[in-house]
# Entry
Amino acid sequence: MPAAESLAAASVPSAGQSPIDARVVLLTHYIPLYQVRVLQQIAAAVREFHILLSTPIEPNRDFQPDWSGLDVTVQNSWTLRRRWRHKAGGFEDQLYVHVPYDTSARLRELNPDVVMSLELGARSLGAAWYCRRASKSKLVLCTYMSERTEQNRGWLRRNLRKKLLKQADAVTYNGPSCRRYLETFDVEPSRLFHLPYAADDRTLHNGRVDRDESASRGRLLVVGQLTARKGVVRLAAQIDEYCRRHADRNIELIFAGNGPEKSTLREFVTAENLTIQLLGNVPAEDLSLWMCRSSAVIAPTLADEWMLVVNEAMHAGVPVIGSLHAQAVTTLIEDGVDGWQYDPADESTIFRSLDQYFSLSDQDLAAMRLAARCKVHSRTPAWAASGAIQAIQHVINGR
# Structure
């Protein structure tokens, strides 16, 4: 494991220790609920911490924003709706591009020592432009990517990223695949810091993980937006085919989420031993209850730079049958230990995973639940935030 990824506790100010003497400004799109606790940890570790948002919430998100304990300002921004065409994955997905146009004015007003900017687009261009002219301000670029999501991004975007990354005083990455991608731009290891995802500790299931295995074995949960990118229709077809080949196995496939593929799933004609249940959007505080009622989680995505539901499931002691196109799966899931990896484009791989899952004894499945929780036990918001705090300390010392 790289040194920057070890996240030594000594780098994070502890109780009674003075915070880092720095005014830090973070520019980001919006604040997902799971990021709140991480940002609170960063805020507690520095003298001042301000957040500039491009938008309170994106149109395809369904939750009430939570900025508790955070100093948040919404910028003046243009929001563009775009189509993401992923050739390797064979899907199109809708995304939003935010172009804040008052970044320089906001930063001049705040006069930060450190500017942290999410992603490598218009937002970070504005941050980099400011830092070039304000010699005391250091630039930290926060990246959340994987090699899969960044396939076929094009020469123009790659050239822009190369210039941005060269200017940055520090760069954060969310996982091993993201780090490998950044290394193709020759970012020095000394400038790389691990800023991973962590599940929201306010909504996790912290109780017992054991259950009536025989009663719940066929109950499989899928969490996330019902879109082409998430691979939900392909998954339904594969599970249907599996049930037709195994008439003695009853499966209840439960989808928690909304999206354009919902109507297709609703009209899906299934084998007699397969039931599809559509829950719609499930509030974060209720999701752990559905995980406790289910025996395993399936993550069928065709491209995800992480996929936090993997962390959430493992905290709840739920094994994950996950697509190898999610960085969380390739980072956390070990076949036969806490779940299985499979390739959504090759149905034989999910058939093999399901065969192994159904052939496990109740005792072995119970052991897998404990192994899953044990692996992610230390992946807390404080642990995640420590990478950002190390990056801040690094650029302050360098200044």
